[in-house]
Amino acid sequence: MQRVELRIPSIPIFERVVRASAAEIGSAAGLSPERVEDLKLAVSEAVNNAIDHGNRGDTAKLVGVIFDIDGDKLEIRISDQGGGVERLDFSRHVIDDERLDAGYLRGFGMYLISALVDDYEVDSSQQGTVLTLRLYRKDRQQ
Amino acid sequence: MSDIIRREEFGDVVVLHILTTSVDAISAAAIAAECQEMRPITVLDFSEVSFINSAGISALLKFVVNARKSGYQLFAMNVTPHHQKIFKMVEMARYMPTIEERDLAAYR
After folding, report:
1. Any alpha helices (H) in B1-108, and if so which ranges?
2. Cross-chain residue pair A112–B25, CB shorter than 8 Å
3. pLDDT tens per residue across span A14-67
4. A chain contacts of residue B54, beta-carbon cutoff 8 Å
5. ipTM confidence score
6. How many domains does chain A have?
7. Within a domain: residue A8?
8. What is the pTM of this model?
9. Residue B95 CB: number of other CB atoms within 10 A?
């Protein structure tokens, strides 16, 4: 198994650092270019969620990201130092007239994650939340 | 002049060329600010864009909201296949269909 670990302050610009790393690691793990794009977006959403909702933008708190390449599996664990969440809403969330009229223009991140990765799980406690994402090489899935 | 958006206007059309590669939380505010000066036909050009996340989608939705309020038409141009997939997933394409550059020739 090969592991890459990053820790960033809860400042949005550093999400780009994680995203750039995800692109390189996804390629190194043998994901197709389209799956690397899926990976970048899923990781971006997870990191932004950890910054905004987990750590509530407290720049003293860190977001940890661990990439594990294990055979044909790439597992990414994104952790925050917040107080935990009751639940994350991964339900399908799309744009419609009602939401637009209500000015409700956010909240697509968790749905996008659920649709883009092969599987995911959430472990949340008062010590923080860990979101685990997994993507598999395409040749394994076929 | 914004270093995030370059405006190109002709007739009732404005093409907003997005110059940043990332439509994300960092660039969202600068992009959304341009929605205050839309034209009856507003086109967002994504030719330089290699990444869009949900914070970016939220910024783009401000154009959708303003277009609906004003009765304007909003289009996307030069959208990558990956971003077309993402737009389809959130049903953005219903509110911001794609247009080809050649289709704008009639307005020039």
Report:
1. 28-33, 54-70, 81-90
2. no
3. 999 999 999 999 999 999 999 999 999 999 999 999 999 999 999 999 999 999
4. 45, 48, 106-109, 112
5. 0.93
6. 1
7. yes
8. 0.94
9. 21
Identify all chain A residues contacting B49, using CB atoms and an 8 Å cutoff: none
Both tokens assigned to A105: 């223009």
Domain with A66, as residue range(s), is 2-137
> Looking at the domain assignment, is residue A142 inside a domain?
no
The reported pLDDT for the residue numbered B108 is 80
The yes/no answer on whether domain B5-102 falls in CATH 3.40.640.10 is no
Task: Determine the Cα angle at A49 with ends A89 and B26, to 5°.
Answer: 135
* Residue B28: closest C-alpha in chain A: A12
- The predicted-structure confidence for A28-41, as pLDDT tens digits, reads as follows 999 999 999 999 99
Q: Which residue has the tokens 């990201």?
A: A65
pLDDT, residue A138, reads 73
Return the ∠ at Cα B45 (arms to B39 and B49), rounded to 5°: 145
CATH of the domain at A131: 3.30.565.10
